[in-house]
């Protein structure tokens, strides 16, 4: 694929001038031709960023719902953006739900069926924006829904600013505008998952007065640490897929080009991290143990300052979870409480509801009520690696040993068999003492797997496919930690410098493992898998990593090389002498 032409701008981030690269946004598809993906080039062959024909009008979409289409809204600097507003016909004094993302505000236009993976046909109306609240439901329950094309998207003026302060300020301006509309009761909420969740935290951090509550379901919040350079390993292909998909009249903030120019943390990347302490309104968040938004979902939720916040953690992929009818009704109770002031008992909802996974599509516990995360009753245990036999042990190894694997094709495993049922819920982390046999860099991919009594893999399923397992990644030259962000249960890399390895050098690295919740039954095994690549085949998302691996990686254990896995063990809430256990 040809490299896009780049355009340079000098921009100010927290008082520092930085050169930022942009590329031209994708030219809109001719709406008369519909969504013929065969006519779209390369990685941008996707319905993401579909731009419907500009057509200002007010019309009835179905019984009881009207749409004000391509309504102009002027930002504080004079830039005009456009929105489609769906609302129940004839109703006033109603709240508004805002969907703010870059993928096109009317993707259903020209499509006979609006469908997403894992969601049965007919579930979502063609009024719905991708990953967003469906007007086909909400308007029938007394809500307006505003589908917005932010700055530079679709027909909106300006250049697309991805997840930065400019985008958040525009969100502030839009919310204050929509709250003043004659039909609005002055209360505005935000809803949606993935990108539509990521923007909610950033806009909420600007504290628009009429933003009453948010529902960010699955949200990456640190685009550098959680997406482009997770663990320090470059992962630019997915972001290329996203940036190349965006449609608009001008330029788009090129995350990929900027990722190559700025491979370490700087003010440009920091500008894309929300100021969580400013978020004090109600928050209802979700997190999937099986999806790449996982870390951000928990991290954001822990950091927001709101005293009214709720989290639901689950195994399912984000789209089936978003449109599950039970979850929609649950969300409606939340919005009814804060956007309509209906006293429906929402406050009695547990602050954390977690699924404890078992195997395949079975969960050991569903929506178990908890008061905090990590759980206060967590007992942290260390399982020490023994390279001589590939085992994990509760006691430190005295004998020094080492094991190696081919960084391109190999992997090593360290296993332990549980002697009793064991629940692991929370953050794990892995300390390894590592050496590169013939190179100055190591990229490692860690997976925590569950095995049965015979050593066969017991995966969990997502969209009907086996998920590789709970994960962590590490580029060893990025091993330096940030002491302010790191905790006793989660090491956080600073990404401020590179420390290449010298020949024969053995260094410790602390690898963060994303949060999870799973039960191991008596006789089942926990396996730590370490490789130089992410081991997953055939997944539909274009995830890939630009590794810098050569030769063999060596893991040292025992003695001064205290390689271990720290696990958060959750004891039963109640256990009798006769053996009855309640979790």
TrEMBL record:
Recorded superkingdom: Bacteria
Annotated Gene3D superfamilies: 1.10.3020.20, alpha/beta hydrolase, Galactose-binding domain-like
Protein's recorded name: Xaa-Pro dipeptidyl-peptidase C-terminal domain-containing protein
Organism phylogeny: Bacteria, Bacillati, Bacillota, Clostridia, Eubacteriales
Database matches in InterPro entries: AB_hydrolase_fold (IPR029058), CocE/Ser_esterase (IPR005674), Galactose-bd-like_sf (IPR008979), Xaa-Pro-like_dom (IPR000383), Xaa-Pro_dipept_C (IPR013736), Xaa-Pro_dipeptidyl-ppase/CocE (IPR050585)
Domain Xaa-Pro dipeptidyl-peptidase C-terminal: 332-566
Gene Ontology molecular functions: dipeptidyl-peptidase activity
Annotated SUPFAM superfamilies: alpha/beta-Hydrolases (SSF53474), Galactose-binding domain-like (SSF49785)
Keyword terms, alphabetized: Hydrolase
The keyword Lyase is annotated on this UniProt entry: no
Alphabetical list of Pfam families matching this protein: Peptidase_S15 (PF02129), PepX_C (PF08530)
PANTHER family on file: COCE_NOND FAMILY, PUTATIVE (AFU_ORTHOLOGUE AFUA_7G00600)-RELATED, PEPTIDASE S9 PROLYL OLIGOPEPTIDASE
């Amino acid at each position: 694929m040809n490299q896009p032409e780049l355009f340079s701008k000098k921009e100010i981030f927290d008082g520092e001038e930085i050169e930022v690269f942009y590329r031209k946004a994708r030219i809109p598809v001719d709406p008369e031709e519909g969504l013929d993906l065969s006519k779209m080039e390369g990685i941008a062959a996707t319905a993401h960023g579909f731009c419907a024909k500009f057509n200002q009008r007010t019309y009835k979409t179905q019984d009881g719902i009207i749409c004000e289409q391509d309504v102009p809204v002027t930002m504080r600097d004079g830039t005009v953006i456009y929105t489609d507003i769906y609302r129940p016909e004839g109703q006033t004094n109603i709240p508004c739900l805002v969907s703010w993302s870059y993928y096109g505000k009317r993707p259903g236009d020209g499509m006979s069926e609006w469908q997403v993976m894992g969601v049965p046909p007919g579930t979502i109306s063609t009024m719905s924006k991708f990953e967003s609240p469906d007007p086909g439901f909400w308007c029938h329950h007394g809500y307006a829904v505003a589908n917005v094309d932010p700055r530079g998207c679709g027909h909106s003026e300006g250049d697309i600013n991805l997840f930065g302060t400019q985008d958040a300020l525009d969100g502030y301006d839009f919310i204050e505008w929509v709250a003043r509309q004659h039909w609005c009761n002055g209360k505005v909420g935000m809803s949606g998952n993935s990108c539509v969740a990521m923007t909610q935290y950033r806009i909420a951090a600007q504290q628009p007065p009429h933003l009453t509550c948010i529902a960010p379901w699955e949200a990456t919040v640190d685009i550098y640490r959680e997406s482009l350079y997770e663990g320090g390993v470059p992962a630019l292909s997915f972001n290329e897929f996203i940036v190349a998909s965006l449609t608009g009249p001008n330029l788009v903030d090129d995350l990929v080009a900027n990722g190559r120019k700025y491979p370490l943390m700087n003010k440009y990347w920091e500008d894309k991290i929300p100021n969580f302490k400013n978020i004090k309104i109600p928050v209802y968040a979700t997190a999937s143990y099986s999806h790449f938004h996982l870390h951000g979902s928990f991290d954001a939720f822990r950091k927001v300052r709101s005293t009214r916040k709720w989290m639901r953690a689950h195994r399912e992929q984000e789209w089936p979870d978003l449109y599950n009818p039970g979850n929609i009704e649950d969300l409606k109770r939340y919005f009814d409480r804060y956007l309509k002031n209906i006293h429906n008992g929402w406050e009695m909802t547990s602050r954390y509801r977690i699924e404890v996974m078992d195997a395949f599509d079975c969960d050991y516990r569903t929506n178990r009520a908890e008061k905090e995360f990590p759980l206060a009753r967590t007992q942290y245990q260390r399982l020490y690696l023994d390279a001589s036999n590939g085992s994990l042990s509760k006691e430190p190894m005295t004998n020094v040993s080492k094991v190696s694997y081919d960084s391109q094709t190999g992997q090593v495993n360290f296993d332990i068999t549980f002697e009793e049922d064991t629940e692991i819920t929370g953050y794990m982390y892995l300390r390894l003492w590592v050496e590169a046999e013939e190179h100055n860099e190591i990229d490692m991919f860690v997976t925590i797997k569950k095995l049965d009594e015979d050593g066969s893999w017991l995966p969990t399923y997502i969209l009907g496919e086996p998920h590789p397992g709970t994960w962590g990644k590490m580029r060893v030259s990025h091993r330096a930690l940030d002491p302010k962000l790191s905790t006793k249960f989660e090491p956080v890399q600073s990404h401020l410098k590179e420390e290449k390895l010298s020949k024969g050098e053995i260094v410790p690295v602390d690898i963060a493992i994303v949060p999870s919740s799973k039960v191991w039954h008596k006789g089942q095994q926990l396996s730590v898998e370490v490789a130089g690549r992410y081991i997953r085949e055939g997944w539909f998302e274009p995830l890939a990593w630009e590794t810098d691996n050569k030769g063999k990686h060596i893991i040292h254990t025992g003695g001064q090389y205290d390689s271990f896995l720290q696990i958060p063990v959750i004891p039963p809430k109640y256990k009798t002498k006769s053996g009855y256990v309640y979790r």
